[in-house]
Amino acid sequence: MKIGAGLACRSYFASALPSLNLGAAVVRCSASASYPSTTSVPTYTSTDHISFIRDVAVANPPERLRCLLNMLQARGETIVPPGAKEGLIPLVIPLSESFSGALTSLLRWPTSPPGMEMPVVEVRKHGVWYLAKSVDQYIHRMLAEEDARGIQEKKLWDAAADLGRELYNKGDLLSSGIADLDTYLLKKVGLFPDVIERKVARHLQREDHVSALVTGEFYTRNHFLGFGRPFVFNAEILLKFRKNLNLETFYQHIAF
């Protein structure tokens, strides 16, 4: 199953929603697209999401979910009820909504491989975008990026608290000796689609075509289970070179 912009929008877990304390949230789909926008949202706590994941989604709640929700709220997003799924694909559990209307969510695969954690995704108007393989990985990335910005404001760090600092402490980027943030993320945090795509773009800017092709091929090696974006991106890269390179000869000399 590949996730992309063409997924149908349906409600999910609807029969179990009455057992949750979802308050009086009003969720409507916009007239222009089948996409939710909250018009009246009461206060929700991490307990609502933890209960939903455990009792409705029948999964183990991530250990640092409370930490992530606090951090999302600290960066200006609005916490939304986990059952506000009208207009969403069936497999997502919404966490928060940004000013743009995008929803940071968890993805609950119905038959995930053993030991696989729920990925963090962003639900946009035209599809689902992979953010991180787990809550921990996303927290790690958020803190590293905040550190790289050099902003003195402590709101995000306070929200992360001790659980967040178990993953990343202020100054870890500098002490690593890695000057480039994207390189740090790939080496110390994990693989991210947008970071890999920027890496390919930089190879192309330097006219290092072999590295661009190798990285594009690496992108498709099942690092992001169920997502079609790596294959689309790699196909676009190959199209750039099909008139200029003998790709069959290229692949004969490159071992992946």
From TrEMBL:
Domain of life: Eukaryota
PANTHER family: CYCLIN DELTA-3 (PTHR35115), PROTEIN IN CHLOROPLAST ATPASE BIOGENESIS, CHLOROPLASTIC (PTHR35115:SF1)
Protein name per UniProt: Uncharacterized protein
Organism placement in taxonomy: Eukaryota, Viridiplantae, Streptophyta, Embryophyta, Tracheophyta
